[in-house]
Amino acid sequence: EDQVTQSPEALRLQEGESSSLNCSYTVSGLRGLFWYRQDPGKGPEFLFTLYSAGEEKEKERLKATLTKKESFLHITAPKPEDSATYLCAVHLGGDKIIFGKGTRLHILP
Amino acid sequence: NAGVMQNPRHLVRRRGQEARLRCSPMKGHSHVYWYRQLPEEGLKFMVYLQKENIIDESGMPKERFSAEFPKEGPSILRIQQVVRGDSAAYFCASSPAVGSGQPQHFGDGTRLSIL
Lengths: 109, 115
What we know:
The complex is a heterodimer of chains A (109) and B (115). In chain A, strand 7 and strand 8 form a beta hairpin. In chain A, strands 2, 4, 5, 9, 10 and 11 form a 6-stranded mixed beta sheet that branches. In chain A, strands 1-3-8-7-6 form a 5-stranded antiparallel beta sheet, with no helix packed on it. Chain A has no helices and 11 strands. With 109 residues, chain A is mainly β. Chain B is mainly β and 115 residues long. Helix content of chain B is 0%, strand content 49%. In chain B, strands 2, 4, 5, 6, 9, 10 and 11 form a 7-stranded mixed beta sheet that branches. At the A-B interface, strand 4, strand 5, strand 9 and strand 10 of A face strand 4, strand 5 and strand 10 of B.
């Protein structure tokens, strides 16, 4: 069964304390992997698409990487405004996209 | 704002009533997806539509739920005879084309509360 698992479920960091969020997947036929950010009361906001193992994408304090079995979202020197839930989604081809449950990130000032 | 527009943002219904949720996709997008999200849960796919066609409704309950995307106007997710368990946030997403690896872009959702 196709599955996407994100860890940890929740993460509290001090401002400036770098860390990584994990998204592991067991799917047949990965077409792409998406990272989204979701703030309370809002819809997911698209961050990155990764298509193949070894690919990396960066945006401000965030960097996403992809291997054959997992993706990491690295956050460097985070600020309180980076607090949000980060969602990983796997595109299986056609219209099939499976979301993980997300990691709730809280950055303390 | 050229993003995905959903309305209403909040909807309260009593058990047995009907709920209608509307979604206008981003300009230039012809593919619409509906998801349901419960607290502490991930987004669960419900249905995928193109103009005037339901492409995949494998995630949508067979009873009481229906969706449409007419030639003119927004996509509608309709829930008949609502029950308490229908309380959730319902999100709509759109994309320009399927199979191209393009990401889906989301609206801010409709929060449905059943009294």
